[in-house]
Write a structure and sequence with these properties.
Oligomer: single chain
Order of helices and strands: HHH
Number of strands: 0
Helix content: 55-70%
Amino acid sequence: MPGYPVGPDRGNATVPTSRARRSSLPLLVGIFFVLVQLLLLMRFVLILLAFPASTTWVGTIYTFSSIFVLPFRLLLQSFAPALPSSVELYTLLAILIYGLLSRILVRFLKALLH
């Protein structure tokens, strides 16, 4: 049996590495855009199901989501699609654009901060 040098037992101790703390800004930006998309999706479903804005929580959702829908409503104001009035095309467009913007912005921030 060959003799191997026996040293002190170090357990699972590892050499500390100098890792820079990652910024949480990309995560916060991503969470913000996900919340905006969920708000817009709730608006779309509530309008599709014709919930009245007289209910407090529905009115609150309509009010907050109108802030994020306004640029797309103004952009598509002159374009009148042949869809029923209950389908808000600009809300769907806003969900898609905010999703795309979120992915681009989060990846840019990750690249910039790392």
